[in-house]
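We emphasize that the prediction below concerns an isolated chain of 252 residues; any contacts that depend on oligomerization or on bound cofactors are therefore not represented. The input was used exactly as deposited, without trimming of termini.
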Amino acid sequence: MKICYFTATGNCLYVAKRIGGELLSIPQLMRNGQLEICDDAVGIVCPVYAVEMPMMVREFLAKVKIKTDYFFFIYTYGMGYAEAFAHADMAARANGLKIDYIHAIQMVDNYLPVFEMQNQLDTLAAKNVEGQIDAVCRDIAERKHTEIVITAEIEAEIAKYKAMLAVPILRKDTAKGYIVTDQCIRCGICAKVCPANNITVTDKVYFSDHCEVCYACLHNCPQNAIHMQNEQSSVRFRNEHIKLKDIILANQ
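Result of the prediction step, given as a token string:
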């Protein structure tokens, strides 16, 4: 079994580790041009971004050639996933793929403009994350199937959604609004955890225009030196089971 994953703060990497198999970083696969995946079971694990998948995951799904008897797609989310299943199904079908099993696991949401991180951490236990992951692991081991139903109403909502190019979470220039404070020691961690190679650190931190809006740089900065004007708090998050070096290895 092979699992292709995208991670910024460790949630998806932890889920992928729990499911097991050979783990493949989507940023690395994209950079290396390794776009042929073959195994008895192949999965994608990624977060929900505004009822969508990350831009890089969508680009990967459009290009990858997957040969498998069982293709599964696992989302992690905080608040909700709405039409996310439909987005995944339509993107897969556009590349000749059929999703056999899809599920979403509620975890901590790291979207700083909306969520107060301490509240997310305080309410984490009630989400029973381990129980959710156990259920998904059992389903995959048993090769369970799920059906994705896409109604005309859902198709209309997705068409409307695709026209919303100004939605902040999907804008590739979002990082240009980040604020780097005097606490920055130019350690370069932000550049190392960025899955899109969007950050350069010299005499200061420079952001380019292909941000994935994953907030890996904000959440993993050891000095808490990167901020947003509209963030709800300065509290930061990384999955407790995942170390900083794991994020760096995943995204570089």
